[in-house]
Design brief:
Low-confidence stretches: none
Strand content: 15-25%
Number of strands: 6
Largest sheet: 6 strands, parallel
Number of helices: 7
Structural class: alpha/beta
Distance between the termini: 32 Å
Oligomer: single chain
Radius of gyration: 16 Å
CATH superfamily: Flavin prenyltransferase-like
């Protein structure tokens, strides 16, 4: 498998395990991941995983620094980072989880921080952008924003696990959604059992 250079954004929706699963699998396979986390995303990591977020970059390096891939952390306010430029070469960007606030900003071309700017670059450069929205129920506003992004070529992968493979844990359900994201980026994986038809 060829080496890939990816961008991962994590925002303030519940569902941090999706982003972390994608990150871990990509690093495990030796890919490079440029990571940016919103302020609300850090709050979710604290609430859902109990992370101490004073030394933010270290939160990730101490957990994933042993993996063979390369993790590049970017502060949210660093609007001059490499990933803010259309000349930066990447194989795609994932926003997982994606809050409805971030979704709305992406749908309307608002770039108030590095995460939003990097996603806006993906759209304008016609590069793969995959978002994993996590909200329920969805309002008409949410659905219209998703439709607008879809029409711009953005792939929408709602955090909807399947059950045909009979998952026995939350981890298996998370791995299914993460695997569907990696499928779109043509990254081979063994995160979930694929459907093989009836017996």
């Amino acid at each position: 498998m060829s080496h890939k250079r990816l961008i991962l954004g994590m925002t303030g929706a519940s569902g941090a395990p999706y982003g972390l699963c994608i990150l871990e699998e990509c690093l495990r396979q030796g890919h490079t991941v440029h990571l940016v986390v919103s302020e609300a995303g850090w709050r979710v990591l604290m609430e859902e995983h109990g992370w101490e977020v004073q030394e933010r970059e270290r939160c990730f390096t101490k957990r994933y620094g042993h993996l063979p891939g390369t993790l590049v952390y970017h502060p949210l306010k660093d609007i001059g980072a490499t990933i803010a430029s259309g000349s930066f070469q990447t194989d795609g960007m994932i926003v997982a989880p994606c809050s409805m606030a971030s979704l709305a900003k992406l749908a309307h071309g608002l770039s108030t921080n590095l995460l939003e700017r990097a996603a806006d670059v993906m759209i304008k450069e016609n590069k793969p952008l995959i978002i994993v929205p996590r909200e329920t129920p969805l309002s008409s506003i949410h659905l219209e924003n998703m439709l607008k992004l879809s029409r711009c070529g953005v792939s929408i992968v709602p955090a909807m696990p399947a059950f045909y493979h009979q998952p026995s844990s939350i981890e298996e359900m998370v791995r299914f959604v993460a695997g569907k994201v990696l499928d779109l980026l043509k990254i081979d994986h063994q995160l979930y059992q694929r459907w093989e038809g009836g017996r």
